[in-house]
Amino acid sequence: MPKVNIAKKSTDTDMTPFVDIAFLILSFFIMATKFKPAEAVPIQTPNSVSSQKLPENDAVMISIDKDDKVYFSIMAQKDPQQARDIIKAAAQARNIPVTDAQVAGYFPGDMIGVPFNKLGAFLALPADQKKTYVQEGIPVKDSANNELYYWIAASRSIFAGQPLKYLIKGDNVSKYPAFKAIIDALKKNDEQKYNLVTMPEGAPTGTELWVERNSK
Amino acid sequence: MASLDTGDGGGHKKGPGVKKAKKLSTRVDMTPMVDLGFLLITFFIFTSTMSSPTTMDLNMPKDTEKKEEETKVKMSGALTIMVGRDNNIFYYEGELTNENASQAFKSSTLTDIRDVIIKKKKEVESRYVTDAACEAKARQEGKNPNDCRQKDFFVLIKPTEEANYKDVIDLLDEMTINKVARYALLEPFDTEKDLINASQGGAPAAAAPAAQ
């Protein structure tokens, strides 16, 4: 009688691709959690127990770097034209001609930290040079000529009728007078509500806030 | 059907008495490695909160020229905290006069100041006499009537010119942590600046620019 041999298949599967994928994902997560988007000006913000998320639209951000230089940026990812309009309005208020072509190079989120008399030249720089250009900061210390006032006034006029948030992002080691100068510029514009940008942190154990958060 | 049978026959090709060497498999069992890999992945997925910046609210009062519109602070419930250079914190309770300056004016650190705030808050709350009007108002506005207990408690934060931004934010955060309902950011008086400078071993405030 002819014998039919059924080929014996091994139950052992090749695990190598599986391992490959596993470690690929692993390395992705290890790296992705550490990487931060490179910023033109690195700012180390303080921590706070606050848990509100940072808005990406309808906001202007005023940053202070570690050398107390003040920068202004417009958060309008949805409508970049709005940001460009603000720059034009601010420059116009100071009688500085800024053309559409110069403003076209600005993208929401970019930081502007030059006095008005250098604004035109700064905006005209090509994108790669803008990154390396050392900005001197918006002059704010002199209360008679606080240039930030015009930036805020321009933002207010462009965002008229829409909600606009003021974000203040300061570096850990920046000094208080720079922060005060910003508050003064905002107050001059009749703005009393601000948001301070911080990194999240848990409420310290045993404090009243901790008790409240943990009882829920 | 023809089937190739190679299973038998041999076995003694090398002659009798010669043992065939056992072939060891070069394959390694990958299963534990995969287990470990996925364990790590799940760990990283669960623990990593893609850390995104948060914001904290700050409401400043409107500058007013009129004296009667200014917020009044009861001296018994006031705690003044000043921020000097190099994370130095100074504080005093109530009012600072020439007579009590040496005892009342104290130095502290960011970690110790929390206890000072909690202590002062408890003290003010213990002196609370039921204020029906305040509690009724709080209920009407949907707030916690217990907040009335600390209605006399007021923290004045006065950063000097040399104060670090981080210290100021940490103090503001401390207000949230300890649930201080009323606090304000102010400029220090000249007498306070002198005291801070004296404790920090710096020059007196006479040379400091008048930034008011």
TrEMBL record, chain A:
This is Biopolymer transporter ExbD. It comes from the Bacteria. Keywords: Cell membrane, Membrane, Protein transport, Transmembrane, Transmembrane helix, Transport. Belongs to the ExbD/TolR family. InterPro entries: ExbD. It comes from Niabella yanshanensis. It is found in: Cell membrane. It is a single-pass membrane protein; Single-pass type II membrane protein.
UniProtKB/TrEMBL annotation, chain B:
Coiled coil: none annotated. The chain crosses the membrane at residues 33-52. The keyword Transcription does not apply. Keywords: Cell membrane, Membrane, Protein transport, Transmembrane, Transmembrane helix, Transport. Pfam families: ExbD. Belongs to the ExbD/TolR family. This is Biopolymer transporter ExbD.
